[in-house]
Model the fold of this input.
Amino acid sequence: MDAVRIYGGKCLEGQTTIQGSKNASLPILAATLLIEGTCEIENCPEISDVYHMLRLLKSLGCKVEREGTLVRVNTEKLSECDMPSDSVGVMRSSIMLLGALLARTGRVCMEYPGGCVIGQRPINLHLQSLRKMGVVIEENETEFCAEAAKLKGAVLNLPFVSVGVTENAILTAVLAEGETIIKPAAREPEIQALCEFLQCAGAKIEGSGSDCLTIRGVNRLYPARYRIPADRIVAGTYLSACMCAGGRVFLRDAPVHHMESVLTRAVEMGAAIDYEADGILVTGRDHRAVCHTLSTGCYPAFPTDMQSPFMVIMALSDQGGSIEETVFENRFRIVPELCRMGADITVHGNTAYISSSKLHGAIVQAEELRGGAALVIAALAAEGTSIVTNRHYIDRGYEDIVLSLRQLGASLELA
Ligand code: EPZ
Done:
């Protein structure tokens, strides 16, 4: 039952509400460790990565309550104990607990976090930044221990933009002594949401959304209530599904102000988008007879998390195109699987060249979150029946994708 069977060829019609952002929820849940008392996080998506994060918080002694998408975290009884490796190992975002735990308890031991197959996902810059802020770190093959009597602000000149390093540095800096400057800082909406949440709790952060963050440490943060913004990548995924399967779908709550690069490219590639007060109406038109080129990059450039779904759109377009992946070194894992469905894609270095093709049903394997979602999208458009295995990868980031797509008229079932 860790698969989904999809009967392709059906258009999508109807509306779906876009869930809260996974990549905003995870650092904000980690940030609750910095705050004594109860924080209330609204619109927290019901996905397995959030489940694992809440499990990690509980393992640290936090009291966690969940009512649908409202999560309450009380950290008064935070105890210093090791985190369950089965949760740390499966979720890279566990690294985000490092800065917050250090700020609160002064000592953290944890296994190297897991991740997925899209890249090595090293944490060298995370550890380098912490060392600059007064943290002593001892490493061995499988785990590391970090200790800091007092965290000190520092100027963190990073060699390139990293979302996770920016988040960890913010979480380490907000209670540190003195001022921390992070540059270049990541500008993603998820970073802006983290800064907003921390500012609600009393943190002193300037430059949110820019490539230079200045954080002045304070003595204490206070419980806050915050609503997670809608997930721009989930919205982009359903947009891509409509473009590939055809039809007309209303994406309620889609965070259009965070989706400019994706929406611009989607219209160039044939989508019609009507902007409403509470979302967007997407009509998946015939694909434009234009050869498209795409290059991923840091926000506000085209997001790497949308690369795989747009690869499917290109494969179904009249003229195909090419995609350059500049963020992760191994993010073309779905190419062999799409080729099994009849796609004609070749990869040279960090660029995939996609020819126009007709897709047919096949049994294909998801190997990571966004690639798995892209295989589902391909199967919706393919002629015949497909089975996408390893559905658990998709469940990491999408609330019940089978139910949502079925409600939009797709024909699919758990298998
Ligand atoms: C975050 O990953 C997201 N994950 C990713 O989304 C997203 O694709 C990525 O940012 C880029 O936008 C979460 O927010 C949980 P990075 P992160 O650090 O922080 C290298 C999804 O599908 N690097 O910005 O891990 C790294 O290898 C996921 O939701 C180092 O070399 O990404 C990569 O090549 C997938 N050393 C580049 O930086 C380090 O210490 C950018 O990665 C850290 C990163």
The radius of gyration is 21 Å. The chain is about 30% helix and 25% strand.
